[in-house]
């Protein structure tokens, strides 16, 4: 169990860009990841967005990031497998893991793609797909090097392998499942994955205490996989060196999102965590009072979706130099 000190400090970014000129947004995402390494962060994670103005190909972005960094772990939080072919994804993940020197931490989830009725004609026009946990199991098998096809040896001038190539030893142990339900937490543990828990959980019982629900997920995962890693991804915005204008912006952002934290949202009864805005000392005190955080030693604090580059620089710098140390963390080198 954690001893109260934060062992690994990471951050998560969505990588927004202008649809009319998308390159600068991708470049600033890479700059943010490099800044994170320079500040000593242990990990940088990117979100996955389709048919939106956020990163649609996180594996490609992390391939680029792997060539601009040397130490920081690179993760996806998360790749929705409903959009992916597990065999092709396994090839991409192994390739980027090798390019990064074994720093890739792929996080995935399952379920139908968002707005599936509208995207199916473009995504799967000729057939239906299986969006169950079996899709994750296929990916895990391919990543682990299990047989993918009855094909190996030399045929003419071509040499074939029965497993996905390239194969990256150790990648299977760095596979994560992003889940917000008790069932997904147990499933991830039972299948030897690591567990990403975020600022959204499923309110499956009558209680509406976000921290208590998240804690039950963490404990269920660890009961199934005691040696597995757990990472918590709350939205955390320290204001220590923020300008007055930035502080106003940050508080306004959190205030607009607060109503959704008061009751479960939608048919799935998803419950959102509050955003943590304030000085690092204030945030550290609030996190130490958070039931789930008290059993966490690894985080990937989520950057807000719609801020400017200078805002992200200030927030990351404050997290690394003020909030992290207040939580007992020491920067990597």
UniProtKB/TrEMBL annotation:
Single Gene Ontology MF annotation: monooxygenase activity
Oxidoreductase among keywords: yes
Signal peptide stretch: none
Protein name: Monooxygenase
Ranges where the Luciferase-like domain occurs: 26-243
The entry's keywords: Monooxygenase, Oxidoreductase
Pfam families linked to this entry: Bac_luciferase (PF00296)
